[in-house]
Amino acid sequence: MSLKTVKTEKVTKEKRYFTSFGILKKFNIFLDFILIFFNFFALNYLFFGVLKLFKKIEESENFNGFLVNFFKKLFFDFSTINNNFILQIQFYILIFTIFIFILFSIYIFFIKNYAKKLNLLSSAGLEKYKFKYLKNGILFKIKKGEELKLEDFKDNKLQNIIHIFNLQKDVVVKRVKNNSIFIKNVNFKSKNLELKDLKKGSIYFGIGLKNDDIYIKLTDLTHYLIVGQSGAGKSVLQNVLIASFLKNLDNLYLFLVDLKGGVEFYQYFRFKNVEVVTSVNNLFNLTTRLIQIMEKRYKFMLEKGIKNWNGKPVVVMIDEYASIADQADLLEKDERKKLHNNLKTLLAKSRAAGIKFFIATQKATADAIDTTLRENLQTKILMRTVSRDAQRVVVGGKEILEELGVEPANFKKGRFIFYSDAVLDLVQSPFCKDDFYKNFENEDNLKNKKAYFEKKDNEVEESKKFEIIEQKDNKLDLFIAKRKELYKKATKLRNKEIQKKLRLIKKRQEEEKETCKEILEELADNLSNAKSV
Prior knowledge:
Radius of gyration: 38 Å
Shape: elongated
CATH architecture of the largest domain: 3-Layer(aba) Sandwich
Oligomer: single chain
CATH superfamily of the largest domain: P-loop containing nucleotide triphosphate hydrolases
Number of helices: 14
Number of strands: 18
């Protein structure tokens, strides 16, 4: 979980230390060191008394002379210790004292650090939790009878814990066994997309929580819903996916739908088997053609007794689904309804026929994408979003978020939850450079100079070919829009005669691909002079 956007709450750092005398202020620490040095003299005095009791030393010798003799032998004639039992015992006492002193120093350092953290946790309201250092994070244990509160490990409180324990900025907070909470460091490998990451026959999504690369086979693709607010990295992920599709260009057909002017996908129009759709009219035509392909494939599958299409898949990627509704007004009423029904039919039935959709949107609520459509998008990808409604719609509530230990509102760019029947993981998409597609530019992949958008589907029968053709004459789209504009004006004026003529023009434009320029101009003049009937 990325927490760079959350401001760290300042906490008071009152330093306390545990000593032999209890919890004392810093200036009392020297008392413990006095005890350590006193230990050596006390043990030696006891040893001196025992020797004198058993008459192992002369009555006239005193304790000071006893110590001076030891140090003199130690520093000036150390070899004599090996042959003198008394000096050996004194030497062991010295070694033991030094060992105790080292242990105590470590003890002081550890307790100092621990006590400081304990005091800071108290300031953060987390003193009721016991904590334990683990290899890749901190484990907080609940005291018996206490209630588990994940709220204590979110937002500013989580920032305090990261600050106190010097954790990485990127963590997940997971509920683990025995009702404990584990704050785990996340070490996603930050990387740019490379050619070696892409595989034939598979689509690459990014790096999982265990630093495993996430691949889905072309044959295992379902319909995908990608949800994330602006700046969450949807374009980054889309470009990574498209790079995988370009790697498999000989084995699929790719349609890229961008009704915001084509800015997201314009660079891909030059590739064979790739069609870029930038107008709602062409999207309407595309859905109609895809239904025809779906029906032909199902007919073939029925004849051959096949349950799932095993030929080339058709992939349709729609950038910002809400833009379809924004531009649907350019279609006539019956076309708008048919477009919606086409999408509904395709999402409900096309997966087994090898037609797969990737739909991206900023919101996943009913006002952005129809509930029926959304339910047919089996695999969900949730990127950064502050909308609780969007989180609930995509992952179905708090359980999934708690299982992964993440907060989608704080995701880094390109970070997302991958949620399907087969996979549940936190994934980081690599960064894909804007010119990465140039790696695939070669004579086999590029269209001819006229950029003629022709697609061939020869899996059904070698003798039959499906043609998927982008509208060659852009002028026709212009006059279709002109006709619709005039039809709206005629409807407003209730001029049924001109409405009838415009319906005939529609038929000629659809069937004969004629612009009907002169007739439209004449009707426009008539309407400008017409009054409401």
